[in-house]
Write a structure and sequence with these properties.
By secondary structure, this protein is an alpha+beta fold. The protein has helices at about 110-115, 160-175, 200-205, 220-225, 235-245, and strands at about 5-10, 15-20, 55, 70, 85-90, 95-100, 105-110, 125-130, 135-140, 150-155, 155-160, 185-195, 210-215. The protein is built from 5 helices and 13 strands. Strands 3, 4, 5, 6, 7, 8, 9, 10, 11, 12 and 13 form an 11-stranded mixed β-sheet that branches. Strands 1-2 form a two-stranded antiparallel sheet. Mean pLDDT is about 80; it is low at about 1-15 and about 15-40.
Length: about 260
Amino acid sequence: MPPITPLLLLHAGLLTLAFQPSYHRHRQQRRPPFITLSASTSDKPLVAEGIDIQCPPPGIPTPLAQGCLLVAKPWEYNHFTSKSCLFLYKYDPETGSRGVVLERPTAFTLSELAPPFSSSVFSNHTVFLGGEQGGDMAVLLHPYGQIPGARSVGGGLFYGGLKGAEAMLKEQEDGTADHGLDPNRFKWWFNYMSWGPGQLEEQIANGSWDVMEGGKEGGEGVAGAVLRQGIALERELWKTLRRHYLPRETGYDENGEEE
């Protein structure tokens, strides 16, 4: 039997993941570029990266809301979420919530998963694994509210608007318009994490997550952390938030490692 490789399919305006046999030699696994966060020893090292994340006040939990970051507790051992950060792009107490893991790049670019995108401005973008649910649907996030079809999901980010983004970026490439879009500020995931009504609240109450939000001291806030294309290989965002922004947990060192 030939090896199986994933294929993203565009259907009804949404990308879905399918699988097809590959009769080509299996390609060598390729890692995306690795972006290292600031090594500053200041209280808020991410500020040097233009990212302003607010430290939760001692004893006062951050309210759960769309557009926040979920930071796994050191003892969280779920395969997808252990030592990870998630961006919550949907929160509704009545219908449930959705988020994407920020630190799991796949070995594939968008054009490798979806051949119709081989000529797209997004063709070389790494696709990240967003979670274990979603029916293999793709998620596209970016900071551009002027794109037709994009909707705000909090944290300075917007969801979707693929056709509008492609059209506007094509106009920029042709020199017919300048919409102020940077192709590198679009990030792709397939699949996501989802929770039914009350499930995420229960996990937080049981000590699985810390909730964080963008600060008010300038910088990009949550968006700057979410849109980084390469912060995944060594869990640097998780380690930085645990060491510099969150209280040290009993039995764990300042990096969130068990003592």
